[in-house]
Amino acid sequence: xxxxxxxxxxxxxxxxxxxxxxxxxxxxxxxxxxxxxxxxxxxxxxxxxxxxxxxxxxxxxxxxxxxxxxxxxxxxxxxxxxxxxxxxxxxxxxxxxxxxxxxxxxxxxxxxxxxxxxxxxxxxxxxxxxxxxxxxxxxxxxxxxxxxxxxxxxxxxxxxxxxxxxxxxxxxxxxxxxxxxxxxxxxxxxxxxxxxxxxxxxxxxxxxxxxxxxxxxxxxxxxxxxxxxxxxxxxxxxxxxxxxxxxxxxxxxxxxxxxxxxxxxxxxxxx
Length: 271
Description:
Order of helices and strands: HEEHEHHEEEEEH
Oligomer: single chain
Number of helices: 5
Radius of gyration: 22 Å
Structural class: alpha+beta
Shape: elongated
């Protein structure tokens, strides 16, 4: 039995989406990699079907696997669990913290697993939903290849109120300490495999409080970039009008077009 492991272009793009600060690793701070990664073993030697499971592996800057989850099941839970368990001890190249998608093939003396058994896991479906939420209509670039600094987010705000949004950010996001804190504001960053969002909540002494600015990374089929949206709940319409002006003024500087995410696995599509 062998387990074939290959990196996906997903790795480099996920690395660019790193959200949390990580410690700087000196070359001699990481233990040397010793030998090849041990492939998973068949749980039952008497049952060795040919099958494949696709893993998503989080890797730290020393190359050690930190998190492992199955994206596409082999159709055999025992084989999925064996692949996940083996991958927890794997090491990859140093200095490339991020995530990698790794197909693991079980090659034994049994029959091939029916293709109908190979299905996306709930974790993969969540990733697919985040990928599809990134898609926006095409945006024309400036003459120099940059994009406008302010691009309105075509998606709805997504919450019934600013208070509901902040509760979710406080639960799921990472607090970003900025000058907002000096004026009773709050900043949050949220994200996962494909999703990246930055929220700035304006409260207290801000002239257009309460309001919130939301920025997120999107993809128009060719390039990735940042779009901006928001919500104002100030009682005075003039204050909300100033908030709309603030959103545009805050994002005046042109932004670079960024590389888009890699294609999804064959057969995956947005509904």
